[in-house]
């Protein structure tokens, strides 16, 4: 194996690792960005709804890593010179995408029940929080929002 092929394989593995490391993890969405000041964290519950939430992880997993490696190896077999490098890079990206999709399709999706709480904050902004229980929270309660969780005030 010559130096060029060894370098290409090393780049393929590094690109696969970077592709997986650059994924972002989802966060609980709010209607508007809210600062964590005392004033804007207090408000009144406008609504509470029961929603179904999937426990499926959103980031790439082993499927993307394995797919990227296999795609890079297969792409490395095509052409020579610059064409070989481009084919290897395309194989890494394509393999990672395909591997990630295969993994997602094979996962068991578990659905759980959660509560979507809409709070009208004192500054007029609405914030929606998703949490697993509501304890003694009711529509019209005075509450505060801290770390994306609603508490009675």
Total helices: the number is 4
Helix content: 40-55%
Q: Count the strands?
A: 5
Low-confidence stretches: 22-39
Structural class: alpha+beta
Q: Any idea how many domains? A: 2
Beta percentage is 25-35%
Amino- and carboxy-terminal Cα gap: 69 Å
Largest sheet: 5 strands, antiparallel
Task: Write the H/E string, N to C.
Answer: HHEHHEEEE
Describe the structure.
It is a single chain. This protein has 4 helices and 5 strands. It has 2 domains: 78 residues, no CATH class; 69 residues. The termini are far apart. It is elongated. Strands 3-2-1-4-5 form a 5-stranded antiparallel sheet. The longest helix is centred in the middle third of the chain and has 25 residues. 41% of the residues lie in helices and 25% in strands.
């Amino acid at each position: 194996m010559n130096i060029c092929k060894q370098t290409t394989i090393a780049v393929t593995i590094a690109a696969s690792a970077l592709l997986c490391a650059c994924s972002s993890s989802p966060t609980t969405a709010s209607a508007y960005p809210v600062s964590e000041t005392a004033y804007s964290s207090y408000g009144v519950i406008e609504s509470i709804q029961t929603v179904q939430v999937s426990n499926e992880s959103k980031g790439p997993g082993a499927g993307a890593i394995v797919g990227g490696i296999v795609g890079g190896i297969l792409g490395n077999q095509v052409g020579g010179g610059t064409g070989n490098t481009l084919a290897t890079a395309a194989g890494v990206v394509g393999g990672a995408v395909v591997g990630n999709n295969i993994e997602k399709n094979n996962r068991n999706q578990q659905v759980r029940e959660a509560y979507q709480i809409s709070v009208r904050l004192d500054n007029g902004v609405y914030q929606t929080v998703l949490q697993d229980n509501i304890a003694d929270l009711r529509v019209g309660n005075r509450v505060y929002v801290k770390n994306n969780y609603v508490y009675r005030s």
